[in-house]
From TrEMBL:
Keyword check for Isomerase: yes
One Pfam family matching this protein: Ala_racemase_C
Pathway(s) this gene product operates in, as recorded in its UniProt entry: Amino-acid biosynthesis; D-alanine biosynthesis; D-alanine from L-alanine: step 1/1
Protein name: Alanine racemase
Amino acid sequence: MSRPAKALIDLNALRHNVTLANQLAPQSRTMAIIKANAYGHGAVAVARAIEDLVPAFGVACTEEALELRESGIVKPICLLEGAFSRDEIDVAARHDFWVSVVNREQLEAVLASRPASALKIWLCVDSGMHRLGIRPEELVATYGALNACDHVASGIVVATHFACADELDNDFTRQQLARFNAGMAGLSGEGNIALSLANSAALLGWPECRADWNRPGIMLYGSSPFQEPNTLADQLQPVMTLKSSVIALREVPPGETVGYGARWSARQPSRIATVAMGYGDGYPVHAPDGTPVLIKGQRCPMVGRVSMDMITVDVTSLQDVAVGDEVVLWGSGLPVNEVARRAATISYELLTRMPRRVPRVYLGADSGS
């Protein structure tokens, strides 16, 4: 009998979320971001499930892109951080990877390369996040050099990334958009240039940022990028439900403690359920006492420090709890954002750090279920 911890991946929910992204900007194209193993959901399975819904995928590196190609994914794949070495440019040309140019060094590498076929380039502009990208005032010269290069394909896409799009009352997104547009003004004579601006938060919350290409990530997996309720984000369906089971029950008298460091002590006669789930399964080690889990469909507070393989839950208020009962840690009925907030982190971290020892069980779509 296998350990009960598992992550159920609802591919129908995934397709619903991708369809919502497409419907929000029907004039745009959607690049589905499936880096970091599709935010922990399994990049190959996710790509197969939505390949008919999107024209391209985005990943962080060549290794992630090659995994998709070797698994039979044929749609274009964009290397969002560009090529980390010159030999990767040749790999990109052979496998139809689109290559981002995010700094002068990558520009020079692309111009000096001799790829087997023309490169599709995404040119990243730093409009204020100050992480990757060329300065807006360098855009005209950089675009011109790429556009004049014999081995750069026509149709360069110009992109930027927003720092505060998840804060709908923060004007910095509009400031970034203004800087980006100022840089683009110098290319007004180049005809229609495809733009890519919106991540999940911008796609959901900033309609003016919906351009030729959108790059949704976290929203595809059913997690809102916002801290507050949002009409559009509230339509998302959770894709991952992290589950396990009760593996032990015990009565704890008043004054006795539970778990490492004796952090929690019983104030009354308490029934404690031990659940096969810990930080070795991706559950946040900093989750405090009171973080909710679902047992028999009801919220129960986690108590005591998270262990590598187990957590403990106060089920005193429940009737008829038994070893083997199902436990939901997040997902359907318990948003991952809520658990993340309790643990002073974000849903992105909880999802992407899900370890491989937790089996992914795919449901719906083409999973055969």
